[in-house]
Amino acid sequence: MYAFHEGGGIPVVDPTSADGVFSLLWLVIALPLAGAAILLIGGKYTDKWGHLLATLLPIGSFAIAVAMIVALVGREEDDRQVAQHLYTWFEAGQLNVGMDLLYDPLSALFLLLITGVGSLIHVYSIGYMAHDPRRRRFFAYLNLFLAAMLMLVLSENYLGLFLGWEGVGLASYLLISFWQHKPSAAAAGKKAFVINRVGDMGLSLAIMLFFVTFGSTSFTVISEGAGELSEKTATILGLLLLLGACGKSAQFPLQAWLLDAMEGPTPVSALIHAATMVTAGVYLIVRSNFIFDLAPDAQTVVVVVAVISIFWGAWIGCAKDDIKKALAGSTMSQIGYMMLAAGLGVAGYAFAIFHLLTHGFFKANMFLGAGSVMHGMDDDVDMRHYGAVRRAMPVTFLTFAMGYLAIIGFPGFSGFWSKDKIIETALAENWVVGVFAIIGAGITGFYMTRLMLLTFFTEKRWDKGVHPHESPKVMTVPLIVLAALSVFGGVLIINDWIVTFLEPVTGVPAHEDPPLPAAAVSVLVVLVVAVGVAAAWFLVGRREVPREAPQDVSWVTKAGRNEVYGNEINDTLVVNPSKHLTTALLATDKYVVDGVLTGGPVAVGGFAGFARRIQNGYVRSYALSILAGALIVALALLAVNAA
Amino acid sequence: MDFTKPTIEYADIWPLLVVFGVACLGVVVEAFVARERRFVVQAALAGLGLAVALGGTIWVAGNLHEHAGGAARGAVDVEGTVVVDGPAVFLWGIILVFALGGVLLFAERRLEGGVSAFAGQAAALPGTEAERQASTRGLEHTEVFPLLMFAVGGMMLFPAANDLLTMFVALEVLSLPLYLLCGLARRRRLLSQEAALKYFLLGAFSSGFFLYGVALVYGFAGSMEFADIHEAVRNDLENQTLLLIGIGMLSVGLLFKVGAAPFHSWTPDVYQGAPTPVTAFMAAGTKIAAFGAILRLFYVALGAERWTWQPMLWVVAILTMIVGAVLAVVQTDMKRMLAYSSVAHTGFLLTGVLGVQQVSELADGELTSLQAVLFYLTTYGFAMVGAFAVVTLVRDSGGEASAFSRWAGLGRRSPLVAALFAFFLLSMAGIPLTAGFVGKWAVFTVALSAGAWPVVVAAIACSIIAVFFYVRVIVLMFFIDGSPDGGEVAVATRPSVLTSATIAVGVAATLVLGIVPGPVLTLTEHAGQFLR
Predict the structure, then answer these.
(1) Does the distance separating the beta carbons of B240 and A92 come in below 8 Å?
(2) pLDDT over 70, % of chain A
(3) A179: which chain B residues are within 8 Å (Cβ-Cβ)?
């Protein structure tokens, strides 16, 4: 068996060096990276064939990923961690930070998801971006994103992970503001960038604390030494990591950027803001299980954040008329489920990853489907202008329906298995959380049915001159593949395969008896979902849908349309205070110092000419600030050392 | 009265003497070489002198004696006034490298159409007939090279001083030539002269504080030498007030030189007004020298009183980072923005100064704060010299164009130059795989191991704000078309090989230090501790 801590059930990362097919590990990252480099440096010479190359390279990475997981499954259970040393990044005395890669069951699953769904979305983009003059650049950024995301999940230490973390942030920024001619896109990119930096602050502090505590940032060293960690340090580390995870995964309170990020091209929303990048936070927490398992308080906070996010996202999803934003709200909510599972500890990690995978399939499927609908509706995103699209776009409709059935948890579909497992575990660990999770599933049923009805059923409410048509093959084939995955993704849970497979990483869960038998839970969840679906049918499907959003709605709907006032909260708590700080500092630099000297000319600052003269930086005011500083320094020294 | 001949260890300090010697030689050249050949001779002489001194520094570094079981290397020379130890020699090395960059930028004559960036005749009043004549006759001030050499000499002496008086003399030797150089801009001369005057007055003011601090500490310790002060601080528990105020006054003088808040107010005005090659040289050189002096004063002389001065530096570090980062956000001039960013960097460096100094207090694999600060200074210097060198290239019809509005869309007109500038900015922002990331990471970790976590939290918050204003410039260059106010836009002028070489070295160093920082980190480790 694999190594454990003495006394604890937390597995230690203890990889063997890479050989055979595993020695190709670096190539998985290098291929898309090379694609990005060729397309960006090659410039317009690559315009003709660049997008094809950029699509082939991730497919190559996918092939390697498949070969590797086959080899990994063929190995003994205690031998399923492989490391590859690329080169030494820093070395000074004892300090040694390597560029090492780690391939274990967890990264193996991520690798398949990222390269697999990534390749499909590249194929889809060939059709979607066919007429965009900057198509080459788009594909270059997509490849760059893939390389960074793969670096994130393959790194063997937190610094390398951080490199990938920043890389996906950069790629996401570039892709959200890809259509820079739209001011809203540029603003959305900026917002994502800024909010993500807040999360990054948590992650970078955690990394530094790791370094100070363990003298290293390598998973191997940290997981080995974690047993000696005090609970307080572990809790601080856990909370800092959670802050990082909240930023990337759009969890409360750092969720506000995700809806704006929908300004990017739809394949980007599918790949980055649904299937892969936004789940990096879940990866971070599961990967850091050796910290969270020692910090029950931090785990509790994870669960609280997750539950808030489930409802916050669902609320938004119920009220938005923009199809992509409704889906984005749902993404936030579904990631909440993954975070919930991750916060439940050893019992939940595997299910968090399971739901992450199935969600990657069905959400990418639905986003691409939404893109296909928008393609047919002249890029209109307002669902109030859709209706009865199913006849015009049968393939899109059918594939989207598979994703829909998966997300609401229709028995047998992938989402049913994964969500059911999370709810079951939550009930076993803490029944209150479990009940919340069940209610959340009901709301999911409501908002997804609403979306489905508004788009594909009900009356035609199309704009004049819009003639929806089915998208070309290059777009529908990826949809069909993803639809198949949405339906059959549940096979991973047969015989608890995914749980056993991930045990070397996440540890063996203790057996607990659920308060209700598993079958009863499933039936209960299905019933609650059915109530949600029925509510949507009565409230949306049976009524006439107005083309303009009605304004005389309840405060609940209004709050949902305004993203539950996330932006306003940010403005009040963060943006405005920092604006005030800047103004105050500027004023101190320009006016106050001089004002003290010349007897308050600030008071008469209304005289424009006079005011301008105050601002021009008199030496005397600078000298005064130095004198004041000197006084403060001397007095502070005296005061601190008076005793 | 007996007079004993002082022993001077020429073998240790000869790089310093070369620099001062070449400076004096430059003054002679000024008198004896014909005007038309003077510029080339002076530039070559300065470059050669610095190169020889750099070679000498490397030679000296290889021949340092070990002390204290290998923890420190070097010797106290010249009757106890100068100490040539590992850190001092390391600082000499990087000061000389950036001074060479400075000489190359000073000697650039292609950008201004055959003349240097310095005023034709500094004595001619701006806007007068005399000035016009000086410019039509193509006059140039070649004295800038000897001035630069004197400043370099002072910078080298500053971190190597082993007593307070030598330190003060070094401070003045490095400052006076810089005051002059700041006022010698060819264009926008009033702004330049104003900057020089401000810098001079405030510099004199802060030197006064420093000198007063010297007197107080002498009063406390009865000696100027750092080793004696250290002993006195450890043993003498009376007259604490004298010592405390003394520390305060000394700090003011040094913190002024590095541009820490609240002593930073001169920085933006001077960086903006000075000729850009001077700004580049000064931003790197002065900061390195002054941080060397701060480290030596606080670690060697006042190391035993760490708990006395550390809270004060905590506050100054946090304040400096906030002021630098927040005010940089609202700047609309490239040089002023870089000036405020340099203030923020001062704060990050002070964060490093707060770290653990003793190797014995560290776990395996941790850096000492001396190592971290030395490494940060190296990365910072390359990025700053490189960035200001790029600023000299971006011009419109009125010469250098440093207003943001002129830079809009530069990425389309001059993609290479804009990309290089973006790279320097990314390094200053501390993005992984650039030198700046490793440097930031190093100083933050050492501060965290010393328990200064509030400072580190503030530092990380400020570096996040900092990323914002660097990225804003990148967005401005690449994603915005033309001038937003419809005015003129700037393009990058093709420089001679001198400026190109400076920028190329800066980019190469920033990239290499980001991807394989190992050798330089080892070098800082090899430099060892300060010699007491």
Answers:
(1) no
(2) 91
(3) none
pLDDT reported for residue A610: 38
How crowded is the C-beta side of A51, counted as CA atoms within 13 Å? Answer: 20
Per the CB < 8 A criterion, the answer to whether B142 and B38 are in contact is yes
* Model confidence pLDDT, tens digit, residues A212-256: 888 788 888 888 888 888 888 899 999 999 999 999 998 988 888
Same domain, A535 and A586: no
Show residues of chain A in contact with B315, CB under 8 Å: 636
Q: Which of A521, A539, A561 is the last residue of a domain?
A: A561
> What's the average model confidence in pLDDT over A615-626?
72
User: What domain range is A341 assigned to?
Assistant: 3-561
d(CA B329, CA B327): 5
Helices B266-273, B276-296: axis angle to 10 degrees equals 140
B323-362 residue pLDDT tens: 898 888 888 889 999 999 999 999 999 999 998 766 666 6
Six token digits for residue B313: 């530096």
Structural domain count, chain A: 2
Residue B395 is inside which H or E element, if any? strand B394-396
Contact yes or no for B42/B26 (Cβ under 8 A): yes
Q: Are B344 and B466 in contact (CB under 8 A)?
A: yes
A6: tokens are 């003495």
Q: Does A626 touch chain B (CB under 8 A)?
A: yes
Residue pair B158/B174 in contact by the 8 Å Cβ criterion: yes
* Residue A523 and residue A594 in one domain: no
Same domain, yes or no: A359 and A377: yes
Q: Is A221 on the interface with B (CB under 8 A)?
A: no
Residue B158 and residue B289 in contact, taking contact as beta carbons nearer than 8 Å: yes
Task: Among B309, B312, B465, pick the best mutation site for testing chain A contact (most A Cβ within 10 A).
Answer: B312
What number is the average pLDDT over the span A443-470?
85
Token digits for A91? 């070395």
Among A163, A182, A183, CA closest to A171? A163
C-alpha distances (whole Å) from A559 to each of A133, A307, A556, A577 are 39, 18, 5, 24
Please spell the DSSP secondary structure of B426-487, one letter per residue.
Answer: HHHHT-TTSHHHHHHHHHHHHHHHTT-HHHHHHHHHHHHHHHHHHHHHHHHHHH--S-TTS-
Which structure tokens are listed for A442?
A: 């009901």
Same domain, residue pair A99 and A119: yes
Q: What is the pTM of this model?
A: 0.85
Tell me, yes or no, whether A538 and A598 share the same domain.
no
Which tens digits make up the pLDDT trace of A49-73? 888 999 999 999 999 999 999 988 8
Which of residues A530, A561, A592 is at a domain's end? Answer: A561
Residues A83, A211 within the same domain? yes
Q: Give B244's contacts in chain A (Cβ within 8 Å).
A: 634, 637-638, 641
Give the pLDDT confidence of A130-186 residue by residue, as tens digits. Answer: 888 888 889 999 999 999 999 999 998 898 899 999 899 888 888 888 887 777 887
Asked if B441's CB is within 8 angstroms of A208's CB, the reply is yes
For A636, name the nearest residue in chain B, comparing CA atoms only.
Answer: B312
Residue A272 and residue A126 in one domain = yes
A597 in the same domain as A546: no
* Strand arrangement, sheet containing B399-400: B399-400, B394-396, B491-492
3-class state of residue B308 by DSSP:
helix
Counts for chain B of helices (H) and strands (E), in that order: 21, 6
Sign of CA dihedral A224, A230, A231, A236: negative
Candidate from A186, A582, A632 with C-beta closest to B326: A582
% of chain B beyond a pLDDT of 90: 55
A202-212 burial, b for 16+ CB within 10 Å, e for fewer? Answer: bbbbbbbbbbb
Q: Are B315 and A636 in contact (CB under 8 A)?
A: yes
